[in-house]
Request: fold
Amino acid sequence: MSAKKLAAVLAAALLAVAGCASTASQNAGTSSTGGTGTPVSIMVGGLNKQIYLPFMLAQRLGYYQKQGLNVTLQDEGAGVDATTNMIAGKVDGVGGFYDHTIAMQGLGQSLESVVSMLTTPGEVELCRPEVRGQIHSPADWAGRNLGVTDLGSSTDFLTQYLAQKNGVDPAKIHRVGVQSGATLIGALQHGNVDCAMTTEPTVSTALAQGAAFILLDMRSAAGTKQQLGGEYPATSLYMTTKYVDSHPDVVQKLVNAYVEALKWIQEHNGAQLAEVMPADYYAGPGKDAYAKAFDNEKGIYNPTGIMPPDGPKTNLAVLQAFNPDVKGKQIDLAKTYTDRFVKAAH
Reply:
């Protein structure tokens, strides 16, 4: 998303705080821990996606209540819209990819990640079977319709970068917002997009239905390094620096809950996870497939919550390769994340 377009979106959101920043957010689901604890609102870029697992898991295991928090989780289809809502003051934090803090610093906004939940993106590029003999890598993307969560989302960032890296001008590809789940799978089945980037459980569902094949896979450290050049910190809780500085006690309690959730993830398997999560989270792929997908990609989760030391440099290099909001600008990575709350939680 260009600086001009995103600035316009942010301006619209700020002028309509009582409204919704997008159609998706108007239909967003809401889940609250209840109780009388300190109220906190977090918007997540797809609550049922396994890459955002810690947010709902912490609720299901009672970790928010344990910290004396009444957390409301709002479901939003794309991180860029969640970020817009937060800057507009409608939510306190965002469950989304860390790279948004870098992109927004390029636009003059100060956001920071307070806990790192994924050390790899967990993203997979799926393509419809009809193009198997035509698309062998991103080098074959010129002129193709490519599905992303939404324009300006992290999948949009990664899609443009992979095109650029493989010799295809991002201006020569057609990026289409298809969200995830049934919407994304339907776009592949109807030929609206040739390929699309998504995560579990959508990946398992699409493969089981024969709706796609895997073009590239970033669910492992090796796969991520091959595609992006190094470790790429992804899911995090990020907030405005103003909120972090003015509510350190609330932030610490949130981070305590997420560090505990990350530890639980390391100590349990997919079958145990499926017993804890809402049934509609695995309604598409089925309970067994949902559990297997978790077991297969368990390595994406950050076991400690500490930001990988070399990770932010990779994120910055990816964005600087194509994103006009970041390219050529001085980005202070030290201001895009903090580990002080995670260290205090251990």
